Structure formats: C-alpha cells, structure tokens
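>> received
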Amino acid sequence: MYGAAPMYAAPRPASGLAITSLVCGIAGVVFGTFLFWLVLPFISSVVAIITGHLALRRTKADPGVGGRGLAFGGLIMGYVMVGIQLVVLAIVLFSFLFVGAFSLPFVFSS
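>> returned
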C-alpha cells in the first residue's frame, strides 16, 4: 500500500548553559532597554557572555550536546549590550566631568 515513514534522527538535547546564555542575553537587552540605569543589565549581559563561552566549549567537546546557535545568540546579545552600556557610561562620565564642571560655577554665581 504505502511506503514506510522516513526515519529521522532524534534531535540533540540543548545544553543548559546555552539556554542560560540566551535567556540572560535577552534579559540584558530587555532590562537595558527599559532600566538602563541599573546594574542588572550589565550583570545579566556578563553572565550571558560567560555561560555562552562555556556552552560553546561544551558543544565543541561533546557532539551529542546541541545548542550552539543558542549560545551564539546569547554571546552576541551579551557583547552588544556590554558595549552599549560602556559607551553610555563613558558619555555620562564625560558629561559629568566636563559639562558639569563648566556649568556649576555659573549656577552658583547668580
């Protein structure tokens, strides 16, 4: 009658570190977008970077573990958010040190 159903290999289980990296990367983006002044986005992004590198090492060492794409996603979001946060911190420090230094004497002189 009909042919047999094709046999597919079972999907590899994703690494828990890769999932953690992706979740922390997303949390860093979400917290960084809405709560940019808190330390939580920076910590979340750093955790995404660390767990992403650990997940990549584990998926490379053990071919039975998947989640390489999840780890790359977490790494990319983590590095982008750390870069953005460092640029914002540099701009804030520059504005406090140089713009504030020139405007405070004029504020207090009147």
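>> The mean pLDDT is 86.
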